[in-house]
Amino acid sequence: MTTQEYQPPANGYRTFLILWATQSVSIIGTAVAWFALIVWLTEHSASQEELGARLAFIGLVTSIPTVFLAPIIGAFVDRHDRRRIMLVADSLSGCVSLVPIALLATNQLSFPLLVAFQFVYLLLGAFHSAAFETSYAMLVPEKQLGRANGMMQTVFSLAAVVPPALAAILLALPTGIIGALLVDVASFVLAALTLAFLRIPSPRPAEAHTAAGGPRAYLADIRTGARFVWDRRPIIWLLATFAVYNAGVTALTVLQPAIVRYQQGASASTLGLEFAGALAINEAAAGLGGIVGGVLIPTWGGLRRKRIYGVLVPILVAGALQMLYGWSAWVWVSAAVLFAWVMLEPVMNSHSQAIWQTHTPREMQGRVFAVRRVIAWGVRPLATVVVGVLTARGVDAGIVVVALGLLTVVWCGVNLFNPQLAHIDDKGYLDEYAARRQTVAET
User: Fold this and answer.
1) pTM
2) Is 316 exposed, middle or buried (0-12, 13-18, 19+ CB in 10 A)?
3) Domain locations in the chain?
4) ∠ CA(437), CA(240), CA(228), 5° rounding?
5) Over the chain, what is the mean pLDDT?
6) Is 8 helix (H, G, I), strand (E, B) or coil?
7) Mean per-residue pLDDT for 312-341?
8) What is the rounded CA–CA span in Å between residue 347 and residue 386?
């Protein structure tokens, strides 16, 4: 089954809309539960230092299933029925979500158990995400991929804005945190029941790629996915662009509290705001920007040709906005900058996703997308360490953010004239490029 000959089912887009709606409820339900658990963790940490260390440890542990196990998960998704994977993942996630509820009810929840729960929870989520992400192209016509990807970006933005308020309401009720966690369980039940009645086609495995096979077969699958990317140099340039961008995003995410407290502190005091209020304004502006950008893409549909400019131009502008944020000392200016910056993320992400979906054979998307995730997201732990070392040595947080924003601007400015990226929409060019590289490798 090749990318050119496959045609999605006649009711594929309707199926996608149903899947998108129910899975969106599940995503928001999960965010509500995690916010409630963060509140519990904050209340059960003895000091700010202990809380910070615990949050950092959770971030490190949970990066294992979401980033470092991604190639194995991607290979598994390419070997098995994707609807069934999502159905099992949702069902098991709902069962696993009952564990902290039982522990809270018996007053036995502890930090180590919370970490273990989150690891298993995200491991199941990684399988679900890989299967869900690779199901779009099986349901949605190619011309609708940009709109579908934009709809997913809208959900991720809503998941950053809606859950805190909803969780706060639920935590104030007599059921408290258990009520918030039950919302997550209910959302998984809805998602699983819906999947049980949907038909989502999966591609036939590629040649020499059957459901059978042990560890060596999975390693071969991972090498195949990596080779697919390596043989298409324009794709590597696209990955490198997102790696540079993600390094800057990581710096801002890590250093934002310090910037708000020390750089925007005087402005916040003038406005009668405490640190928490100023940070909330920054976060709310970012969330609203993501929602606006997420609505823009489904309405517009994105670029149909020269989609690389739908990636490079928004990232370049985002880099300039990052520099402005690192320099700004005013709360409302910073909030406006964040609004504009995050509004661009659905645009760049949806165009990038459409490029990957168009050029990657459907039967290989699990493996190839996993390689993409490792490279594009793998920079985040490294960037976190580098940013921490720099600030620990006395480098101003704002300067670090400005420097990485400048790097993003320069990188994208140069790559606007990169001839290989200019051909990234041409599937024939990419396939011929890969064939030449494979011929050279075999000689």
Assistant:
1) 0.69
2) buried
3) 1-204, 225-443
4) 35
5) 82
6) coil
7) 94
8) 28
